[in-house]
Amino acid sequence: xxxxxxxxxxxxxxxxxxxxxxxxxxxxxxxxxxxxxxxxxxxxxxxxxxxxxxxxxxxxxxxxxxxxxxxxxxxxxxxxxxxxxxxxxxxxxxxxxxxxxxxxxxxxxxxxxxxxxxxxxxxxxxxxxxxxxxxxxxxxxxxxxxxxxxxxxxxxxxxxxxxxxxxxxxxxxxxxxxxxxxxxxxxxxxxxxxxxxxxxxxxxxxxxxxxxxxxxxxxxxxxxxxxxxxxxxxxxxxxxxxxxxxxxxxxxxxxxxxxxxxxxxxxxxxxxxxxxxxxxxxxxxxxxxxxxxxxxxxxxxxxxxxxxxxxxxxxxxxxxxxxxxxxxxxxxxxxxxxxxxxxxxxxxxxxxxxxxxxxxxxxxxxxxxxxxxxxxxxxxxxxxxxxxxxxxxxxxxxxxxxxxxxxxxxxxxxxxxxxxx
Length: 421
Prior knowledge:
Blueprint: H1 5-23, H2 35-50, H3 54-62, H4 65-87, H5 89-100, H6 106-121, H7 124-138, H8 146-163, H9 168-177, H10 181-204, H11 224-234, H12 239-257, H13 262-275, H14 277-293, H15 295-310, H16 315-333, H17 336-353, H18 358-373, H19 380-389, H20 393-398, H21 401-417
Helix pairs in contact: 1-2, 2-14, 3-14, 4-12, 4-13, 4-14, 5-7, 6-7, 6-8, 6-10, 7-8, 7-19, 8-10, 8-18, 8-19, 9-17, 9-18, 10-18, 10-21, 11-12, 15-16, 15-17, 16-17, 16-18, 17-18, 18-21
């Protein structure tokens, strides 16, 4: 367990610093100790604990293909957001949305739209990229807590990431455990839909305090870049290519319909990239920290927990261990797909030992890792939402109600029916 001390140090500094400055009454308390600074002592500790080979381990984590792809997506999302803002597309889509949506349905609608898109495309990052900029722009027209609105976006995105049949987490959990995908989906859907219904009831009660009058007219054609982004996403085009095509299309729309020029777009792309510099650097540092901690630490933790269950021989306890492994692995790696792949061998052994059906084990590891991914303030989803909205990652994490509820529903379900499984 000592191997996770660097991560614990980072979380304590990040969380503790924010709480300390909040107690002092300082504005923007969680920004006083930036996460990029808070992670430096954690990296130093992990480097010291790693000893020989620390340099290679750090850059192995930083240079991981998925990490570099994620950072590229961050930069492209920033460029797309800046271009659409410059040409007036953001205002156009906000005006269109607010002219047809009743205020009391606004936050619920944000959650529902995010969940629908997430289920269709199977990637939470794609949902946040598509929906969050629009929600941020809506924040200038409605008097509603931005952290709550971002929490609805992230919650809906994680709903789709967990439940979608084309999600990489679904594929990883079913494939690595040799489970029946249909039966896993049915069980997963039962808990996810129940949690979504409870979450919607809570969000429906969180009505905006008021709304600024908006123009129902305007150039609706300026919303086409967003329409293209959603269409390409629904057609399962790679998110990298989707952002490139949508950004180029937004520039063309701006040049044709407004006084925007190609030269202006160069500046816009640069500003968009710079707006994502913090989250990109932090993601690279977190990846390096994960590389220093290493996968062996996770495997050792799993082996110790498995041995602990062996002494008690209880199927329900074994299922709680599966859930705990999903939570811990994702907390350490900040990537639910990788967490599932690493935890799968241990979970397979537990499932066979206690005669737990494979589709149940697959559902538990998928749900638990997605719950943690939607709640950790240093995860890619919340970091992206925070960067786009200018809200503290921790404040968003506290208001991702769907993930909190899903975790509670999962625990209750296993407690009540775990032995029957």
